[in-house]
Amino acid sequence: MPTTPERRCPECVAAVAHCHGTLIQAAAPECTDTTCADLDIALHPLVINLADLTPVRSRSVA
Amino acid sequence: MARPIWHGAINFGLVTVPVDMFGATEDHTVSFRQFERGTSDRIRYKRVNERTGDEVAYGDIVKGAEVGDGEYVIIEPEELDQIAPGRSRTIDISSFVALEEIDPIHFQKTYWLAPAKEEYGKAYGLLLQAMRKTGRAGIANFVMRGKEYLTAVRAGDDDLLLLTTLLFAEDLRDPAKELKSLPEITPARGRELDMAVTLIDSMTDDWTPEDYEDTYARRVEKLIEDKKAGREVVAEDAPAHPTKVVDLFEALSKSVESRKRRRSDTPSKRAAAKPSVDLSNLTKAELDKMARELDVKGRSKMTRDQLQDAVATASTSAQAS
Ligand SMILES: [Zn+2]
Ligand SMILES: [Zn+2]
Fold this sequence. Notes:
The structure holds two protein chains of two kinds. By secondary structure, chain A is of the alpha+beta class. Chain A contains three helices and three strands. Chain A has helices at residues 5-8, 10-13, 50-53; strands at residues 22-25, 30-31, 46-49. Chain A has a three-stranded mixed β-sheet with strand order 2-1-3. In chain A, strand 1 and strand 2 form a beta hairpin. Chain B folds into three domains: 6-27 and 82-171, Ku70, Chain: A, Domain 2, CATH 2.40.290; 190-265, no CATH class; 269-320. Helices cover 31% and strands 21% of the residues of chain B. Chain B is extended and about 70 Å long. Classes of the chains: A alpha+beta, B alpha+beta. The interface between A and B is medium-sized, with 29 and 30 residues. The structure holds zinc ion (ZN) (2 copies). One zinc ion is lined by residues 6, 9, 11-12, 18, 20 of chain A.
């Protein structure tokens, strides 16, 4: 049993399918984990919106 | 074999059935990886601490909600669990509705619910059969991975309960707020409306999803194969531009005409559905497809054997007529 993150992950403990990547929600969603097999939001405890990733300074005012 | 994405129980009145949840659908499109142009270097996403630039492990990432002025409140998963005790372990059916009542705009994603152990099969089977008999779907809320889902649970054709996640009413946008202007609908003229209805009637068909294919994905696969084999990739001709519609009525009646011609050229579905195979060798899905082509009523509620009988009867009467 790994000592670090996984031990604190309730999904790992419960042996249910999930992904440790962050799902980037967009028209074409992506996951930070390149081995991610399923972009279903239900499999991702960590989710972020593409719009929230855009650095403030490059957001256009138009 | 697929791993469940959630364990829990479904509550129906005082009956509790432990279930496992599995994804029932998947995306078939080609998934592309990202590279820097001119290199074979993959693009990767790294989750880093904004200040130190160091990568942060999954287990060390916590969620924070902005409370104004750049201040955040950090919320631990356990705290989310505590505000809705038990909600993340049970799917509580609160009411039953006719499935047709739910506007498809609410539908999101569908999962299978399977009994967690063989011994729960009896209660599970009872719930499934009762739902099938009434044709109703159970509406239930439950919490998964820190998010509440509104769901419809119904009996599927494969003797499995299906759970479809639904959008809440508050997730639906108001077009009056989002669109620059809403279309102004003027009452359609009588003969134009009649002709448009005739066209719809002439194009009316049974819903057979197997008839529709993602031809674009096939082309993408072919493009990849061609490039891999070093073959020249030939651009396809763009489809002809539709002729400019001058007279709406004329365009509609021409469409109805061409539709009629196409219908008379192709043999009818009834004739095509003549079974030349031994029905007892077919799967439930295959029999269901035949039943659909033969317009067998109530087929979605039939068992495999009932479907076989219905297909046999319907195809005999179709051959006789
Ligand atoms: Zn985990
Ligand atoms: Zn993922």
